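Progress report, Aim 2. The chain analyzed during this reporting quarter is listed below.
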Amino acid sequence: MKLTLILVLAIAGLTGVGILAAGCGTKSIKAAAPGTVQPVNDFENYAYQVLEDTQAGLADVDAKIKSGELPKSFTPDYDRAAVLYNTSIALLKRYDAAYRAGSSVDAIQLEISQDLGDLIALGLKMWPNKIKAAPAPPAPKK
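Predicted structure tokens for the chain:
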């Protein structure tokens, strides 16, 4: 049940980020996962990929708000998305450390999934007509 919820939220996270990036017409900026040499599992890798796309979308939205291409009324949603992005990065660093130490990561993973869900909601709010199909998340390992 937990894995299903996490996968659903992960799909939703990628969809929301796709909406955020599609709304600004940017290409994804690929960067190394902060604080990790190699992701510890598919969830961590997937979350970093989603956040890399979010980073690109946020940079473009910021530029478009400053240029007047997007209205200033987007600023509170942009600010909230930026906070969620930064929070998710910090949570992923904690997740990585806990996983490598052999500790339970269930609560942290749920927090990350919830932040991704909130990012989706913001993406839908800002660009309701830019919905596109999300690629499938990584298959759970059995």
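Residues 2-126 form one domain. The two ends are 14 Å apart (CA to CA). These observations will guide the mutagenesis work planned for the next reporting period.
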